[in-house]
Every structure is written in C-alpha cells, then in structure tokens.
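Problem: given the chain below (206 residues), write out its structure.
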Amino acid sequence: MERYMPPFIRHIVQSLTPRSTTPNLTPRIATPNIPEEMIIDSHIHLYPATEQDQLAWLTQNHPLHGQHSVEDYLAVTRGFNKRGPANVRGFVFVETDRKHDLKTEDFGYPLKEIEWLARIQQGLPREGDGHDQEHAKLVLGIVPWAPLPVGPEKLAAYVEAAKKAAGPSASKIVGFRYLIQDKPLGACISPSFIESLKWLGRNNYT
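Solution.
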C-alpha cells in the first residue's frame, strides 16, 4: 500500500532524488525510493532566544520561553534514535506567529523571521541564533507568515518582500500561513481573504 504524501512534501522528496533522463524524452524526476529511516519533519516551529520578544504569544512565564533553535531540535530528536538524528533528513519550518499589525501594515517581525531562516539555510549563523553551518542542509522548506486578509494585490507585494528577505533561500518558500483561531468569526471567508488564497494557488504556494 502506497504511503500518502502531501504534494509539497513530495516535491521536497523529489528535489532530494537524483534526476534521470531518457533519450529523446524530456528529463523527468525519478520515482523517489524513500528509505524507512528517512524522516522529513513536515511541521516544525523554531525561534532563537535573541528574537523571542517578537513572538505575539510568548510571555516570560510561558513554558516555551527560552531558546528553541536547531541545536535544541537535534538534541530532542536524538532521544528517539539511539544512533543519533541521522535519520532526520530535514524539516519544513512553519511560522511562529510573530507580532504584526494589519492596520498599519507593519510586517517587520515576520520578515525578520524569514531572514533568520535564511541564515540557517545558507549556513550563516550569528551569535545567539542557535545553529551552525552544518545545519544548513536541514532546511528543506519554509512556510512564512503572510497577511491574507489584505487581499491579493498587497499580498503579492508582501510575498516579494518575503522573497527579498530570504535572498538565495527564496526557493525554499513552499507556502504561507495565517492563523485564524483567534480571529473574529468569518475572517477566513471574507472576499479579500478568499482572493488571497486563490492568488497563492495560482502562484504555486500552499
């Protein structure tokens, strides 16, 4: 029985699989042969202690207050595998709800989160970031925050800013997220929200 794989994860797995070519045919991606030991963590939240004051939900007394970066993630995964975290091929980072303001269109902190992820993916750590050069290969996908309620025109401008913040890591952005659980009833069925979702789909983002 074939294991289910979400489309964006399949895309990531295929990107890790060597391409094969057949004479007189368009190059195609070989069907991935996925080892049982290979793990792609498809939904992970990380943040450095140096930027935790940018999180909208985190307080001084919160159990998750403190450093939760790549080094901490790898330390935890070692507990599930006696051989170490070698079976973790990488992860898809999902945004952590950094502070923002839709009314004033202040999206600085979400963009700083993308810059931090880009530093991880490019192997350019700063003091306090909680990662090193060897961790660059772990970043297989990035799902940043995006202001879906503002409509497709402003969303498109934000996505361009997100790609600029990511720099060479922009190709790792596979989708965007906007949390709705704390928003007013009906927030996700407004015309602007729906049109933003359509725009993401047309531009191959989840």
